Amino acid sequence: MSWQRVGALLLGGSVLPACPGCPGRRGIGSVLLFMARMGWELCHVFRPYTVVEQPINDFLRDDMLMTVRDSSREGLKIIERCHASPYGGHYGAFRTQVNIWQSGFFWPTMYGDSKEFVRRCTSCERQGGITAHDAMPLTYNLQVEIFDVWGIDFMGPFPKSRNCEYILVAVDYISKWVEAMSCSAADAKHGKKMFTEIIFPRFGTPRMVISDGGSHFIDKTFRDLLRDLGAKHNVATPYHP
């Protein structure tokens, strides 16, 4: 017979039925004496059935598993101690629940309360790492042929030379072939010129063009040019296309 079964019978005021090692029908006192002689620890028998009716003070550990009745008040204090205290460690909901179990407490909604407390913990939100669930989705660019995907960006301004102070650079993602063109300004006009006079005549229409989010690349005329020729325009981060 398990300790929990014995504890349930004792707390219910029943008489322990016949069982191996404990013959006959015995009263509560006889059962306790028998258990003491057998070396059973009574704290394990009554551990799942002990109820805390008084407020929890500064202690968290005892020999008995204490069932918390007012989980909204006392349970919150216990979760805070087991999660946000100096020895709590700010672990996740499952580890916080384990800490509560190891500290000797239980209530039916313990895991849900721990999960909600961890979700609302400001320290975890400020210092916790970004998970895959919270990270921004990545755009996958598949390059299968040479001159299929180009990345473009403006360099400069540089000291003026022949009224030009910018350089528009286009790089093929496969071969790393570089095309460059001097520009008087970083605008959509020179971006269109790069493709209509250099990229399209020499290498054909690319499948994709990758650029940053500068106004010269998200200009309607530049994007319309790529769309009309069947090239997809992919806008990357502001500084690193």
TrEMBL record:
GO terms under biological process: DNA integration
Any GO molecular function: nucleic acid binding
Transmembrane intervals: none
UniProtKB keywords: Signal
A Pfam family recorded for this sequence: rve
Keyword tRNA processing attached: no
Domain Integrase catalytic: 133-241
Matches recorded under SUPFAM superfamilies: Ribonuclease H-like
Matching InterPro entries: Gypsy_RT_Integrase-like, Integrase_cat-core, Integrase_H2C2, RNaseH-like_sf, RNaseH_sf
PROSITE patterns: INTEGRASE
Signal peptide: 1-21
Coiled-coil features, chain-numbered ranges: none
PANTHER family: ENDONUCLEASE-RELATED
This protein's name: OSJNBa0060B20.3 protein
Organism, scientific name: Oryza sativa subsp. japonica
